[in-house]
Amino acid sequence: MAGNDIMENWLIKQVKLAPHRLALMYEDKTWTFKQLQDAVYRIAKKLVGFDKRLGKRTALITGNTPASYFMILALQQIGVQPVLLNFRLAFAELERQRKDAGVVVMFVDDSLKKQFSEFVKSNENYYFISEIKKFKTGKLKIIPTFEDESIASIMYTSGTTGRPHGVLQTYRNHFFSAIGSVLNLGLEADDQWLCAVPIFHVSGLSIMMRSLIYGTGVVLVPHFDPVKISELLATRPISIMSVVPVMLKRLLEVYPSGGYNNAFRTFLLGGAPIAAAILNDCRQKKISVIQSYGMTETCSQIVALNFADAPSKIGAVGKPLFPVEVRIKGRNHIGEVEVKGPNVARSYLNDQAGFEAKLTPDGWFKTGDIGFFDEEGFLFIKGRKDEMFISGGENVFPTEIEKVYSRVAGIKAIAVVGVFDKEWGQVPCAFVETEKDFKLKVKKLKNYGRKFLAHYKVPQRFVVVPQLPRTASGKVKHAEIEKLLSRDAE
Predict the structure, then answer these.
(1) What's the pLDDT band for 470 if we cut at 50, 70, 90?
(2) By three-state DSSP, how is residue 275 classified?
(3) CATH number at 387-489
(4) CATH class for the domain made up of 6-379
(5) Whether the predicted pLDDT of 418 surpasses 90
(6) Distance between start and end Cα atoms, the chain
């Protein structure tokens, strides 16, 4: 598929193929694909009857609720680009992204009323989703086909190391992302994918898109509650669940004695490679975990590590999925990871030049990650290019240090940054979230680090913080660590 190819509207197609098959489950409510279409069309009629302020694109501050789910699909059905914004952002940040996207109207999920009530009241172009009921009903004109290069969604990068970019994700991007995933994970007609990750993030939205492409069900939960989710995994015929490392760790802590249901196949892990201790726990419990690597610009996963290979490839993210190509550009087989494939996004919103700056002359996308392939073709990520710092002439990657210290009992999470040093230029400094009652002993931690790391990689300082700044997917926002440095200096 290339150029101006088109596909039949995915929702329409699934209603034709399997109208009575489960499409969505939320708490005690279920929707078949036909019922999902009816719910989406009701909202779409109201949106069409609203007014022209919807424009080319409309922003959503979503929760993990059916209302937000329906809204995203309704906008796609009428050809309006949904701009998905993170409710955890400050109001000023949300306003910056709204203006950057050229959006007039913003809809907010009602589950966020406590947080956004005053904000919505004071902004005439902001509405809670429930207010749609008041709009006039318009004449519905559904988009019958999805053009390959039409924009299916816009979401902003997490901004772990700098200013967030609005990524233009096309229907072609989502389609091939879904194909690469299914060729790796397999597919059963009655598969159900549990979605506890936010649907404003690519990990959550891609579950929605896969459901429409595969014709499989989504079990949507409002937020991550390990006890409730464990109960669902034990009692519902759920096949797959997307998790980040902290979610998997907490689920293992409350793993039910009878295990999960017989249909459960695997966890799809993103965000960071699995720790050896967690992997061993999963093996003992006979729980499959597929590790993956991807980004907003690639519409989710592009590399995956099968569970069978994981024990011998600790730290690897896996091999490239079909039809993605991955290469390393650098010296001595270590360098920036570059990718090429039909699921690489089209551009950045209002920043074509910025996107093109990340493309090589022969059309490969530069990820900003530094990595290498081993002799068997498994990809290892050392860290972000823009997080790397130089200490005494040596390249230091914070990710490598963080992986070592994450194995220390009592350390919940750790983030490492380079700080100025007169002698060495920069030296590592670690910010640590600890378990309750854990006493951090710097000398002991330094001695531990020297067993596994070169001396210049061992943090010179360890600073305990209540919580590290994180993105929606659980990644630490290194760009905000400098703020912690400033506070610590004060």
Answers:
(1) confident
(2) coil
(3) 3.30.300.30
(4) alpha beta
(5) no
(6) 57
